Amino acid sequence: MTARSSAEAPRGVPEATVARLPLYLRALTTLADAGTATCSSEDLAAAAGVNSAMLRKDLSHLGSYGTRGVGYDVDHLRYEIAREIGLTTDRNVVVVGLGNLGQALANYAGFRSRGFRVVALLDADPRMVGSTVAGLEVRDVAELERVVAELDVAIGVVATPATAAQEVADRLVGAGVAAILNFAPTVLTVPEGVEVRKVDLSTELQILAFHEQRRSGEYLPTDPPGSSVSPAVLAGGEEVR
């Protein structure tokens, strides 16, 4: 098995464009909630945090939804992007790993409002199994395959320690789940045709630290070997729990 990577998403839409579609959808939702019926590409681009040329190019991959001199119909474009992403139908989600992060994900209200239903929670810890999190009973991870089949799970969220993540991913794939969101601090290997998105919070913090260090003038390019480094950093950071 190999780690899946692709330059393009289905239907010929570039992966970089796919990554920005949720930004446009969020911006359009904010505009709609504010009562805005139409908007220009400049206004939408500013709300999404991109430049207008990039936005127009991205939307050109989906079709022509703007009107010259008028702009975009906010509700219509919001529907079309949601349809393109696949959010016009709810998708069932299982969260595997109910440590602190897993419980936070289970309680995140934003999933439901965006078309994702957390329908099951799984954990290997006997102390967690049988407890209630976000209104759902935590089930034993041994039931994973049964849960996927019974609840028509489309997306698996892996929030386990790194040591367990690959096994969980293998079982999700074996049960028919072809979309995995990985919060575990490890790279998952999956067959062709299975999509994995990795969310590495520690890496993002390290990138922020890089920029903050230079902004504040802390960076010393001549730091001698053996300078103080956090043992947690040398150990690769803490595992997800």
From TrEMBL:
<dbReference type="InterPro" id="IPR003781">
    <property type="entry name" value="CoA-bd"/>
</dbReference>
<keyword id="KW-0238">DNA-binding</keyword>
<dbReference type="InterPro" id="IPR036291">
    <property type="entry name" value="NAD(P)-bd_dom_sf"/>
</dbReference>
<protein>
    <recommendedName>
        <fullName>Redox-sensing transcriptional repressor Rex</fullName>
    </recommendedName>
</protein>
<dbReference type="Pfam" id="PF02629">
    <property type="entry name" value="CoA_binding"/>
</dbReference>
<keyword id="KW-0805">Transcription regulation</keyword>
<dbReference type="InterPro" id="IPR036388">
    <property type="entry name" value="WH-like_DNA-bd_sf"/>
</dbReference>
<feature type="domain" description="CoA-binding">
    <location>
        <begin position="86"/>
        <end position="187"/>
    </location>
</feature>
<keyword id="KW-0963">Cytoplasm</keyword>
<comment type="function">
    <text>Modulates transcription in response to changes in cellular NADH/NAD(+) redox state.</text>
</comment>
<feature type="region of interest" description="Disordered">
    <location>
        <begin position="217"/>
        <end position="241"/>
    </location>
</feature>
<dbReference type="InterPro" id="IPR009718">
    <property type="entry name" value="Rex_DNA-bd_C_dom"/>
</dbReference>
<keyword id="KW-0678">Repressor</keyword>
<comment type="subunit">
    <text>Homodimer.</text>
</comment>
<feature type="binding site">
    <location>
        <begin position="97"/>
        <end position="102"/>
    </location>
    <ligand>
        <name>NAD(+)</name>
    </ligand>
</feature>
<dbReference type="InterPro" id="IPR022876">
    <property type="entry name" value="Tscrpt_rep_Rex"/>
</dbReference>
<keyword id="KW-0520">NAD</keyword>
<dbReference type="InterPro" id="IPR058236">
    <property type="entry name" value="Rex_actinobacterial-type"/>
</dbReference>
<dbReference type="Pfam" id="PF06971">
    <property type="entry name" value="Put_DNA-bind_N"/>
</dbReference>
<dbReference type="InterPro" id="IPR036390">
    <property type="entry name" value="WH_DNA-bd_sf"/>
</dbReference>
<feature type="DNA-binding region" description="H-T-H motif">
    <location>
        <begin position="23"/>
        <end position="62"/>
    </location>
</feature>
<keyword id="KW-0804">Transcription</keyword>
<comment type="similarity">
    <text>Belongs to the transcriptional regulatory Rex family.</text>
</comment>
